[in-house]
Design a protein that fits this description.
about 60 residues, alpha+beta, Factor Xa Inhibitor, 3-stranded antiparallel beta sheet, about 15% strand
């Protein structure tokens, strides 16, 4: 009998899987030292980001369902 895979609990809240299989996450660098950043940069950091293709294999293993 095959063992069930467990989801990494810390990633449940941080990453979402789209219907097409891509992984969406929030940008980092938005919590402090914002006075040094431009308005445009801060605004763009609040948009969701698609995970890099180099991380997709690991994310599929950590978020199987």
């Amino acid at each position: 009998m095959k063992m069930k895979l467990k989801t990494l609990s810390s990633l449940k809240k941080r990453v979402k899987k789209t219907a097409t299989g891509k992984f969406i996450h929030a940008h980092s660098g938005t919590s402090h030292n914002n006075s040094a950043k431009t308005s445009r940069r801060k605004r763009l950091l609040h948009r969701p980001a698609v995970a890099d293709e180099t991380k997709v294999k690991a994310l599929k293993r950590l978020l199987p369902y």
